[in-house]
Write a structure and sequence with these properties.
It is built from two helices and three strands, in the order H-E-E-E-H. By secondary structure, it is of the alpha+beta class.
């Protein structure tokens, strides 16, 4: 190997290792709505309900999940996210549960 080639290769290898070390895990997405099961609700008893909008405190209305730590503080978890806005998730889950219960 020529000395000029070796000088160029070492910074490139260090750069590639540095980029690999900075990579983070891909976010996981969550929902409150259970998967729809066609067979669980007979067609004759299906209801459509309109649930009014749900108010969520601004502190937890974020794409990231907010969890309570042991110290009582709230913390955002960057690798876990809601699949939809949290108020829409709660509204959809409430509507689906009420439809199933009726």
């Amino acid at each position: 190997m020529k000395p000029s080639t070796m000088r160029c290769t070492l910074p490139l290898a260090a750069l590639l290792l540095g980029i690999g070390a900075c990579s983070s895990t891909a976010p996981q997405f969550y929902t409150l709505v259970a998967p729809a099961s066609e067979s669980s609700i007979p067609a004759s008893t299906q209801f459509q309900l309109e649930v009014l909008p749900v108010d969520i405190p601004a502190q937890v209305e974020t794409p990231q999940m907010v969890v309570r730590e042991s110290s009582g503080q709230m913390a955002k978890v960057d690798t876990r996210r809601w699949i939809a806005p949290l108020d829409a998730e709660i509204r959809s889950a409430l509507s689906a549960d009420l439809s199933r219960a009726l």
